[in-house]
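One-letter codes give the sequence; backbone shape is given numerically. An example follows:

. . .
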Amino acid sequence: MPELVDCKLEYPLSPRFHLFEKLRIFSTCDLPQMQLLTPLVRVVQSVGRQLQKEGASLESGLPVSCVFSDSDTFSLRLLPEEKAVVSRIIFFSLPRLAPYYGTKTLYVILAEELCRQFWGIHGETLVAFKVFEILRWIFPELEIEEIYSRDIAELYHKWAGDQPEEAEDLPVGRRPFSS
């Protein structure tokens, strides 16, 4: 792994987290505990629970690095022995997250990017469905309409309830509330 320039902190995950070997969290500054770290830990725990529920294997694939910066940029530097690097990085700018502290939108932002990495989901609708599953671990009474547009909510209800045969067309692990 290349060196993160100006990295001040690495937040190690405990082995009790299902993702502790596949997710690394770095920051160029102190992260606000209640506003960001608590929601981040809750989302990471929920992603791990969902992956376990689905029986997902984390054996293959590169680790994911979450990088938090107090600006809109960050830099990497190759180590002396490295010629190139392949990495999976999620970059978060704290000034861009700050308006969402204390809201469910912050949880959505954090979960969306983790879903893209751990499930390989790229379509916005499928990401929304998976994020909703993840956030239900944190907020059991959550309704999809609270976090997504009416269009996404209608699609979700179509997939999850009214037309279950269409939901069957989604790959396992991408179905709403797959088990």
User: Anything to note?
Assistant: The mean pLDDT is 82.
